[in-house]
Amino acid sequence: xxxxxxxxxxxxxxxxxxxxxxxxxxxxxxxxxxxxxxxxxxxxxxxxxxxxxxxxxxxxxxxxxxxxxxxxxxxxxxxxxxxxxxxxxxxxxxxxxxxxxxxxxxxxxxxxxxxxxxxxxxxxxxxxxxxxxxxxxxxxxxxxxxxxxxxxxxxxxxxxxxxxxxxxxxxxxxxxxxxxxxxxxxxxxxxxxxxxxxxxxxxxxxxxxxxxxxxxxxxxxxxxxxxxxxxxxxxxxxxxxxxxxxxxxxxxxxxxxxxxxxxxxxxxxxxxxxxxxxx
Length: 279
What we know:
globular; 279 residues; Nucleoside Triphosphate Pyrophosphohydrolase; 14 strands; alpha+beta; 3-stranded antiparallel β-sheet; 29% helix; 8 helices; 8-stranded mixed β-sheet
């Protein structure tokens, strides 16, 4: 399926041509994690947490996205861990145990940094509720790189709750993009008692929205959605509730759209057939 998008400029069109001709090496994709935080909707189905990125941001400025970001070097370090092993996540994510562990840690770290949702708890299985000025200070330090996830969990006597994350999808940025990511998507329920608070530098708006409503807003031009986001929303729109999503054991295969130039000078995004792109 081909999607005509209006934000391509001449510089990107030239990158598409140069890479196709073998005259330019594509940028190496950075490993990243994204988390779709969901809760049951009052009338059935689910609501998903979405952040509106500031327009000035270099990547996906103005788009509505799920919390997430790149894997940091510190994410490869050990943390307290409870739930499915890194080896098991690696089998489902198509990654080595070392990378899978880093992807899970990045997912937990980014979700706390960007949304204030902490997928961690005490060793006896209780989920922590991060409230109060001390937690906000730790969150700010984590966001600034002054505190690692391992340091945060150790200080608080907590462990990462890997079982709260359900592997969902893997999307790789097209070859011609100058900023590329190899992103694993996870689904997670909003832990009981936790409240969502956006980080001002990462989002200027935060919403809980039904997937169908988000897609309808995108069709009306009221929301900007990247293809992986729209596709995931289309899948979540079919769910009867949070349990329906978290109960799935999906095969996470890589999906990589392509950027193409047409003969009339238009740039197109080609999304692989069969993924159910809903827009």
